[in-house]
Amino acid sequence: xxxxxxxxxAESPVQLLNILEWAHIHPGARTVVILPPHDPISRxxxxxxxxxxxxxxxxxxxxxARGGALKPSRALAALAGPLRRARLLLIGDPFSRYLQLLLxxxxxxxxxxxxxxxxxxEFTAQLARGERLVRWHRAAPSGARAALFAPVARRxxxxxxxxxxxxxxxFTAMPVDPPEGVAVTANTLAWTRDRFGPPRVAAxxxxxxxxxxxxxxxxxxxxLAAVAGLAERHAVARYxxxxxxxxxxxxxxxxxxxxxxxxxxxPLELVARRGPxxxxxxxxxxxxxxxxxxxxxxxxxxxxVCDLSPGWFTDRVTERAxxxxxxxxxxxxxxxxxxxxxxxxx
Length: 346
Known about the structure:
alpha/beta, seven-stranded parallel sheet, six-stranded parallel sheet, 12 helices, 13 strands
């Protein structure tokens, strides 16, 4: 397909990474539309990922679609023509209301959903059950605004459901159980391995941070106590911050756990592949317990998944959310044979 045939949308650095991974096994120039969020860390990573996409020969459009009364409507107007012409859409976040709106505007065409992390697992499960798409850590939307948007959400789900003459594919590194008719292609992170590394492996351990405190899933004090305990027991030196972690929490990690804070300028998969990387990488349930074993398969680095204690969860956490996090851990152990650490007490 040509540049005009395929239209890819990225709202996060990880989505853009996996668009490049998909393009690696489907050669040809593509048009990639970046719909950046507000936070500066994500925007900075997206700008660096955009340059990597241009280096691969893709056409990259930076489209501001958030903030103020006019930006969303102007972005929709600018994208209306490309949406009508596209024969294939690549999207990274089916839960995004903006992406759902774009899907509802597009012509009937094939759709590929690329990884936006572990949310892909929940997306395929909800699609198989015919449910409205709701992020695993949030309650179903309600109120007048949700009611107004409901027809758009239903149209988006229909566009993501296979129909005669229209294909739906999930391109993923996650273990998924899609509905009948949805094709699944394994994302092996081949582009990342081909373009970067292998990295130098340093002594000691690294710890991957999580934004589960910021999303209201974990109590901050209990999470920090667990991080300090892991750092002491496993000689952790560096803490790789998630792009959504707050500056104040990271200052506490540095102060209370004595760790060097690393703010990655690219998705962690690329940072790890460029190196240096620790001989052991510890992570709580996260996308990286599925992706780093692929990225670092030729390095000898040990990936260890750390369990979460129920006592760390806030009152907002539902049984569905805790079950989802448990599934992230168990599937990573099964798929990649990862070492496992029970929840540290703290």
